[in-house]
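Re: beginner question about structure tokens

> Can someone show what the tokenized structure looks like for a real chain? I only ever see the sequence side.

Sure, here's an example I had lying around. Input first:
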Amino acid sequence: MDSIVDSTTDRARERAEDRVRHGDQDGREPSVTWCPSGDAHRPESVVLGVRSGENGEVVYLADPVPAADVLGGIPEGIAPNRVLRFASHCVSDCANRIGTSCGLIERIRTVPSEPTASAVPRCHLRPHCKWWNQVGVDACHRCPAVTTLNSPEDELTALVADPSTTREQLDSWIAAAE
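And the corresponding structure tokens:
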């Protein structure tokens, strides 16, 4: 029985890894990029990591796991993005899209951050990540702290998450808070 479960789990993991590997074999940029702050319910979605620790930062999984395989295990009444981070395809009709760029990572980069270690977290998504391809290592340093479930009491996080927020609005809010 255990070998059947292991075999099924291995096949699911292989399917998830195949979903993430949409790049061309000759080293060109991937034909499909992935959003590291994706929708858990999209058919291609994978679990990027688990929220852990005091600050709820993401601890990244070594290998992708199909979101559909874990969503049923989350207790009713708990939002999946409260405990997990998901990745899904970066889509052209996303509210955060500005031309071919992601406005969310640009808003995230506006917020002053604590200095971090020079090493970036290990992440299976990186070669296909929209944020990595757009801004490089700065995205990786900030990514573990990104939340997809925001508290209404956290005004700055709400501003960053709102696609209509401008850089000037963020700069003004940050200046007023200092």
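Each token stands for a local structural state, so reading them left to right follows the chain. Confidence is low (pLDDT under 50) at residues 1-9, 21-29.
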